[in-house]
Write a structure and sequence with these properties.
218 residues, mainly alpha, Heme Oxygenase, Chain A
Length: 218
């Protein structure tokens, strides 16, 4: 399959799974998330941002292909900046990010960390994970707006969401450039599907724990 046609197929798969992801936990939690603690939800963001920064930095170090290395390096730097932005937002809410300790094992991040091929990492970390983040962040932004939390909305609209979109777009470009063989395309499809499988299950569990489906992604 030609690379551009293959990536369009991947985008269709990704889009079809997004609705399943954003509804994960439906029926078990509050629809709006208005009762959830805003500080707690932003701490979820801290964990996501630092986790993806770590993954992207490791992926950058593990490849010799300059275009892929630079894409992951950009992702790592942007996610670190997101961490700082969210930390600054948490300060007036009474949370000191200097005392933040990342939570325990994350099955989604662990699965992505196990990928060894740079193109599979592009598919998982850039093309899929960042599109997931962009999608779930939209719902979180809507809830923040309903609460009147204009500063959190500003941070996500002006900084975080544009970066997530750019990361996913970088992933698309790199897959068109490098995912040429049928065997590699099969592996990339499997990465995208597995990433969604794990993300849907993990997000449903988190929704039940937090009492809302409206919490941020990476």
């Amino acid at each position: 399959m030609k690379n551009e046609a293959f990536v369009r197929e991947l985008e269709a798969l990704r889009d079809s799974r997004m609705a399943e992801l954003t509804s994960a936990g439906r029926g078990a939690v509050r629809e709006t998330g208005e009762a959830a603690d805003p500080s707690l939800l932003l701490q979820v963001a801290l964990a996501n941002e630092i986790g993806v920064a770590d993954l992207a930095a490791a992926a950058a170090a593990a490849t010799s292909r300059t275009d892929i290395k630079l894409a992951f390096a950009r992702q790592a730097g942007d996610e670190a900046r997101h961490f700082q932005l969210v930390a600054a937002r948490l300060a007036p809410l009474g949370f000191d990010a200097a005392a933040f300790a990342p939570p325990g094992p994350n099955p989604l991040f662990d699965s992505l960390r196990e990928l060894s091929d740079p193109i599979e990492r592009v598919a998982g970390l850039l093309f899929t994970l960042e599109a997931i983040a962009q999608g779930v962040n939209e719902r979180f932004i809507q809830v923040c707006a309903l609460r009147g939390d204009e500063e959190t909305v500003r941070i996500y609209r002006e900084f975080i969401q544009p970066d997530e979109e750019a990361h996913a777009r970088l992933g698309r470009t790199l897959l068109i450039e490098h995912a040429g063989s049928a065997e590699l395309q099969d592996r990339v499809r499997a990465v995208v599907a597995r990433t969604f499988d794990i993300a849907v299950a993990q997000r449903a569990r988190a929704a039940e724990r937090l009492g809302t489906r409206s919490f941020p992604g990476c």
